[in-house]
Amino acid sequence: MTTIPHDQQGGRDLETEFGPPLDDIAVLGRKLTKRFGEFAAVDAVDIDVYSGECFGLLGPNGAGKSSTMRMLSCISQPTSGALTVLGRDPRREAARIRAQLGIVHQENNLDLDIKVVENLTTYARYFGFSRPECRQRASEMLQFAQLEQKARSKAGELSGGMQRRLAIARALVNSPEMVFLDEPTTGLDPQMRHVVWQRLLELKKRRTTLVVTTHYMEEAEQLCDRIVIMDHGHIVAEGTPQMLIKENVSQEVVELWFSDAPTDETAAPLHAISEQLDVLADRIVLYVANGEEAAKEVHRRGLWPTRLTIRRSTLEDVFLRLTGRTLAE
Hints:
The protein is built from 13 helices and 13 strands. By secondary structure, the protein is α/β, with parallel strands linked by helices. This is ATP-binding cassette domain-containing protein.
């Protein structure tokens, strides 16, 4: 069974306190901290990633996601705190752990001047596979990524979406137990994004553990079993997408656009009809139990927006409520 030394546990029974058996936990972190000088990019966070789940790390730029991801993927050592990954201590066995990981960086980092299949066979050689094994694994990954017809093309000749699929395929060539994906669909058009989602959902069906960072809230809702939202180096919320929505925002949202930029004065009459209210640069957002009734109250109070929409609450609403920032910040 995976254990953390007693002197790093703080005297707690981790298996009892944190739920599932430790054998079912791919990553177990306690009070993880990453400092750069006096600045704490990650400040004493507790993180569990369960085997076979898709775990999402969300947060604004500078929230601590990348530093956390680098610690969990054994690229960077924590400044302090306790961490085990796949049952091993990264301080002593980082190389053995990394041999069981697949990592997809935000930038593809492909060898653009060599053929697609060579990107896979060359990378497979780093893991000590024989040449026949490398060819077999490359063939399997080309099929998985639906790139068989592009095998002899140079990687630099592929479209952005195809390059992203190749980067994911390359990260899987060693049959990793866990895959880290940093913004896996950034820059892709909606159609190609859904193609990548399908590949990742296939990995979930195979019980591959996935850790994902993304700025696309729809992507997080589609893929992630559990999500952690970070801000200023701390975890501000954790749970399933549905749980986070239920616990942090109302059932429905009314969005109001006006010909001029909205102000607090514009929003003043609306506070009484909403559970929560945000004045954004281009609109006013009302969080309400009943959107239709709230829309009628807007008009009764003498406000006539140029555009009014009613929709169900989403994970993006949770993100904005908890971090108070736009996704593009």
